[in-house]
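Margin note: ligand = zinc ion.
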Amino acid sequence: MKTLKLRIKDKHAGQLNILAGAVNFVWNYVNELSFKHLQRTGHFFSAYDLAAYIKGAGEYLNLHSQTLQAITETHAKSRKQFKKDKLNWRTNNPKAKRRNLGWIPFKKTAIKHLATRQSGKKSLKTTLQLSLAKGQKLIIDLWDSYNLALYSINTCELVQDSRGNWYACITVKEFPKTVCGTGQVGIDLGCKESAVTSDGDVLTTKLTHKYAEKLAIAQRAKHKKRVRAIHAKIKNTRQDLIHKFTNTLVKANNLIVVGKIKSKSFTSTNLAKSVYDAGWFEIKRQLDYKCKNAGCHYIEVNEAYTTQTCSCCGSRQDSPKGRADLGVRVWFCSSCQTVHQRDVNGAKNILAVGLDRL
Ligand SMILES: [Zn+2]
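Resulting structure:
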């Protein structure tokens, strides 16, 4: 198990402060009750005994039954840890002399990961659903620097720092470590095929075209919900294809070299839509973190001339050149008598540049 700490968006602070007050209320009640019980009988209440006394209180305080349980468990644990008959009174009143920072615990059954999505160029945003009393839900947005979608969540505690900012401390199972393979591969990112490897494997993620007709029909009918659903379908399918492709690559290799393309140079042309459709950015993002996780080398190299050079003899005599020759898929090198698939040849050259760099 490890704990990830993620910042919660400020818009939730008001709601969380109220819930933190409710948690303190339960804590103080439990604290008093177990102290009185100790005075009367000479025995401590266990967390289990306490549960019977606060059962049903959650409804009035809008706290999930598992949250109540977590409070009694933490109370019993810290009472033992600090060897005290009674613990401190908790308050989040800002005017109080000894103010406690907010704390709201949730257990596994009350936590649901709703979504993780791109927000801006590099950061991710995650939405969590936490259960309160009587089927009510607390939906919170987090700045996600770990990609929670990859983990299985165990518990979640919402905590406040001294500046009043809220964080989610999420305990997760360790991400299962994949082991990288022993091969070496170069990848040429292209427009026709999204990616071609030096081994000749091809990734095609062009889906916009496939769904174009359905999308047009929905748009003409002004069926907004349907349009959104089709866009989501395209995005999810593309994401899934890229995940499968990058997983296979990382499992088979310990060196992955990708041509560094300036996506910006394409955005002003008609190719922009194509580039987005091909998911270059996503391919690189996934390779980067998956290689880090598996201990595989990942390099991006300048891809200048990689399509124009013969990967066998280095001649540039007969190769396709420039944008005018983009349509040329197969060519013949007269210097060494080799027939080349343009993209595979490019990927082989990219791998060679990467090996050179090492
Ligand atoms: Zn040649």
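Residues 310, 312-313, 315, 333, 335-336, 338 surround zinc ion (CB under 6 Å).
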